[in-house]
Structure formats: C-alpha cells, structure tokens
C-alpha cells in the first residue's frame, strides 16, 4: 500500500490534510478549529478515537 493524501480544507480560513501510510495517519492542520476538523473527519468516515492530538 502506498501513501494516501486527503485534503480536508483549503482556503483563507485554514487548511487541513490527512496523510495515511497504512499503519497510521497524520493530521496536518493550519488554522482550522478543532470542531471544524472533527466535522470534516467525520464526513470522511474517520473515527475520532483513532486520533491522538498534539498541541
């Protein structure tokens, strides 16, 4: 399996992307609220409990 990239949002209010390497996922967020990121992940079928947050 290769690496998959999914752009959650891109615009003047913020940007977010998910990088999926098969064994794990990385969320790259720049400017979106946590509530908005959670909403976008849910829309794409990602389960919240599968994520760890680093601030």
Radius of gyration, rounded?
11 Å
Strand coverage percent:
35-45%
Class of secondary structure makeup: alpha+beta
**Helicity level:** 10-25%
User: N- to C-terminal separation?
Assistant: 29 Å
Average pLDDT, all residues: 81
Structure overview:
- The model has no long low-confidence stretch (mean pLDDT 81).
- The N and C termini lie far apart (29 Å).
- The protein has one helix at residues 34-43; strands at 4-11, 14-20, 25-30.
- By secondary structure, the protein is of the alpha+beta class.
- Helices cover 18% and strands 38% of the residues.
Please give a quick description of this structure.
The chain contains one helix and three strands. It is α+β, with helices and mostly antiparallel strands and 55 residues long.
Features:
3-stranded antiparallel beta sheet, alpha+beta, 55 residues
Topology overview:
Layout: E1 4-11, E2 14-20, E3 25-30, H1 34-43
Antiparallel strand pairs: 1-2, 2-3
């Amino acid at each position: 399996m290769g690496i998959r990239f999914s752009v959650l949002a891109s615009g003047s209010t913020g940007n977010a992307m998910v990088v999926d390497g098969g064994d794990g996922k990385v969320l790259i967020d720049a400017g979106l609220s946590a509530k908005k990121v959670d909403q976008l992940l849910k829309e794409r079928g990602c389960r919240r409990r599968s994520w760890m947050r680093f601030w």
